Amino acid sequence: MIRQKAKSVLFVTTTLGTGGAEQMLLKILQRLDRDQFDPVVVSLLDEGTVGKKIKALGIPVICLRMDRLVHILAAPFVLGRLIRQHRFDLIQGWMYHGNLLAWLGRFLANSHAPLSFGVRQSFYGLSRERFNTRWVIRANAWLSERVQGCVFNSFFSLETHRNFGFGGSGMRVIPNGFDVETFAPCPEKGVAVRSALQIADELVVGMVARFHPVKGHHDFLRAAKVVHQHRPDVKFLLAGTGMTEKSPQLMAWIDELGIAKAVLLLGERSDISDLNNAFDIACLASKAEAFPNAIGESMACGVPCVVTDVGDCADIVGPTGRVVRAGEPELLARAILELLEMAPEDRQSLGRAARQRVMERFDMDRVAQHYGECFHALASKAKA
Question: What's the CATH superfamily of 187-361?
């Protein structure tokens, strides 16, 4: 029996830095059947932290370094030459700018390879976007009916983009996935983290998110103050890029609220699974999301979550946690207190249900399988 040649797949991503969209691309590539697919990755910028890990898989990573005007002007032609030379079987864009450049490169190469856009965020209107990004989103919408597919990571994202003008028959949702072996309950790891932070006996509420206005850290800290007034035995752990004492805005909020002794700023961490195992409750106070990885990772570790009702958060958490309106610190505090007042065994039961929900709906192996099926369907649309 003659083995069929693996289909060559070009991924064109905006960045390969530390971020949820980039991490999801890495996890897909780690599980992609290499007997069926032969991937190449193009980054509009540099290889970042994720690019190094992709290269370690034996997958070529090509960086267009579009951080200078001369490279911006040259990038579509460089990509077009690459597409023309390699004759890819299919092309997958990844994030708005990656989608647009994938279309431009394919156009310049006069390629008939099927092209799919990858949209990794929800849409709350152009006014929330940077000026330069607005026209890129408009271009994505106009082109969406002229490409062969468009994959969203949440139903909320699909609906908000459809309402804006995205269309085409190939729109579908493939949710984010989680490695349920790496992210798993492990009390010993949690004990080690607590010991290192000298919070062995306190209750812990954690939030993992980069410091950005959309993540709602001010609301979280205001909720933390309310919780602290009722439960001074609770510690609040904040991890993520920018979550350090070097942030003047963050420190000003903490000092103003008078909760400095209750808050620990951990900065960017590489041991997120261990950290989650130190949480009694995980929280997300975001004002906007599509499908936040942080919540799925906490749930996979058996941690009940309190989240704001943005993006697909309510659907992700379901009955295993609490969902409140965004921008309402009092409601956030009330939900956190409700879980803290539970008997430990009841809270742990919620955590077990959260992990089971992730295993049933968002297991990374199953998500990667969905992408493989999507790529096969996309390749079938190739012109003769």
Answer: Glycogen Phosphorylase B; (3.40.50.2000)
